[in-house]
Sequence to fold (294 residues):
Amino acid sequence: MSFLDRFRRSTANESFVNSPMRDNWYQASSYWPSSFSLVTTVSEDGETNIGPYQLTFPFEIIGGRAVMIISRQGSNTDRNVKRTGKCALNFVEFNRRHLKKIVSLGYPGQTTEEKMKDNPYTLVDSPTPGRESDGKRMPKILKEAFQVYECSLDQEQHIRDDGKTPEYLILRMENILLKETWAKNIEDGTTRMPNMPITFGFRDGAKFWFTEIRKPFWFPTPTDKGPKEESILYEANRLNPEVQFTREACKQLTGIPRPFVKTALKGIIKRALEEGISEVDVEFIERLNKEREG
Ligand SMILES: Cc1cc2nc3c(=O)[nH]c(=O)nc-3n(C[C@H](O)[C@H](O)[C@H](O)COP(=O)(O)O)c2cc1C
Fold:
């Protein structure tokens, strides 16, 4: 927020007016701040190409994992993904100097060779076995990224396939790569958020708007609303994908004091694994309870 913005009058008492429905309405008729990805793909010449895409959305999130990217038809990314079936979505932290270069990487009509001359990033091989750059299909990734989604094109799932621009690319997630610090942050309980740059997109035919996020903060989720077992269910089912808890089983565990829940869940998972059980249900919990009570 700029100094002047702090003194700007609230618009709460103003009347609503219609904004013209333009193409690319999210940026031409309204305000849509969001993160963006830097998509790496392999060009026909075997070079890694970087294309910035604000319209990068989580698409399938439970069971299946997919991302959707909306791209103008015929972009390098669109053509490369369709030809090779592979791409990597790189997410970087805020760096004003790099953002200026990202705008150049996002200027349409350039070949990979032309645009990559001014690339501020270091291209490296993926650490994933089989994903090393091969000059054909597997793109390099950005060393500076804090997070990379390695994806392949879903050929089956078509949102709209009428040959018109834009293209809705459904990309199946093969791997989520995180830098060590950010992986540990999630595993140990999140205490920080990456300083991701935010874009407001292309405006007035001549400007690309960005902003930096201020200090992230959190509120606790309500403990007095909804089913009591919800948070236990959430925690239980992300500890080990091999062992999943039923909701009914979690209801049995709502009496455990909060600080001991994780330890208790780990103990139950250990027993389940020893016994070759993949689903913890009420019967299993009751059996463990009986054993404990002697
Ligand atoms: C920050 C940023 C976000 C962008 N987001 C999109 C987007 O979501 N979809 C799109 O078609 N173009 C988007 N563009 C424009 C593309 O980057 C541009 O079409 C570019 O030519 C794509 O690169 P490529 O041809 O190498 O794939 C964006 C540009 C910038 C700078």
The first strand starts at residue 37 and ends at 42. The first helix runs from residue 25 to 28. Residues 36, 49, 51-55, 70-72, 75-77, 102-103, 106, 108, 166, 199, 208 surround flavin mononucleotide (CB under 6 Å). The mean pLDDT is 94.
